[in-house]
Protein: DCA17 factor
Organism: Geococcyx californianus
Amino acid sequence: MSPQAPGGRGAGRARGPRSVCRLLARRALGFCARDAGVAHRRNLGLLREIMCQESTKFKNVWTTHSASPIAYERGRIYLDNFRCCISSIAQEPRILYQKPKCSKSEKIEDALLLECPLGEMLPGPLDYKSSLIVLTVQNWLLRLSADSGEVLEKIYLAGSCCKFRYLSWDTPQEVMVVKSAQNKLPAAARQAGIQQSVLFHLAVFQVLPLSFVGMLEINKKIFGNSVTDVAVSNGILIVMYSMGLVRLYNFQAITEQFMEQPFDLGHEFNWNGQVGVVGKYPFGLPCNIKITDTPPLLFETSSLENAFQIGGYPWHYIITPNKKKHKGVFHICSLKDNTLAKNGIQDMKCCSLEPDWIYFHPDMSGRIIHVGPNLIKVLKFKEVKNNTDQTEIAEDFMIVANRENCVNDAVTVTASGRVVKKRFNLLDDDPEQETFKIVDYEDELDLLSTVAVTQIGADGRAHLDFHCNEHGILLKSIPLLESWDVTYSHEVYFDKDLVLHIEQKPNRRFSCYVYQMVCDTAEEDECSSHEKTERSFCKKGGRIFEYI
């Protein structure tokens, strides 16, 4: 008999050499029956089954309002320009920290959540806990404790020569990019004939521990006069131009070729006649990557509004032909040779105020999601028979809005027999018809979530639906109790057993509605209906919260 797996009847026997080699090989590939990842995946599978049961409800446990934007990230709700952090996990709001009011010079421009990498030794115990990287209006980069708001690290980026405004990931949770606003000369300087050649500054960091990779300028003498924007993503420098042109460069090759000297944070430096400490006030960071010649071009294409995406397997890209009449038409082409895939032109031919949108599925399956007002198409790549060099775009599944009660007859007959002809047809995204507004993917539960809205008069109703990510089958529908106005800006987050709806009303009024998964009782059934229920109010940390 062959040795049994751990925990079986033969668990006490010694394993044979073949079994040991097989076990070591599986462990090298990341498979281990007792590791935390296996238990976590099993727990998430159970959570998905419980959540999709008919008896499971989502209850609006509390609501709060704010005069400033509200942000959400991993169970934490940020208000008052990130000065107040509230845990969304408990059924009652729990303020994790609240900082005193700050001056305009300390205003936070952007933020990223930083989480501990797995399998790496870090300098200090606090590095193993989640932290928030924030960028202030005065060019300070701060690392704050996500639970207490304590400042863990401070880095001064630069003086008044540039204004850093944006944070983004080059590689998520590994390499971070800080981008400046576009440098523009004052009108008086332009009238005097002064030229501005530097358009953007980019500062690149590795994270946990934070280390400085380098800073570079995007200069129009190198990249051209019509540059409108720039980004770094997945090791690629992306440069966008006013005429719709998009060019890609190898950022790693640029760093290696044009870096004049590496620098470490906190170390003294002597640079261009300046002596100071890297990352400290008033010197900040040296611009140590000087691009003196046009780097080798990896790829270029032209697309309407610079819309360009890469994904799929084999690699493909999505663009819209660079003419306004082609808005809403998407071309899916091979990155290898720019050939159009079979069935690679996707056009929903919808007549709507808001355009349809398309993107590569974030589940890394290589599929494509195409969202229109009343239709969601999930597309996949297939090999073309008798032609291994070409791929075909095929439909994997569709999700269709519920418009059974929609009546849009061009001709109607009144009770008196008079024939009335309509002079116009309803738009595909007319508020009185159910329309898809948000489509998202919950990676831990492997669910595709959609928000569909119907608005009749001033009263709009929305529901959040969960679909099987593999086949598109509807598994659960959750009604959102608050009225949904289609003219407002909305965000909906679905995070395991939590649903969060953030709404922006006119005059910078923001509302946050928190829903949590609960077991079914008669009381919960009442709270899940659209009927008005009693609400109570409480005050915590100077902020008013509303309960059902």
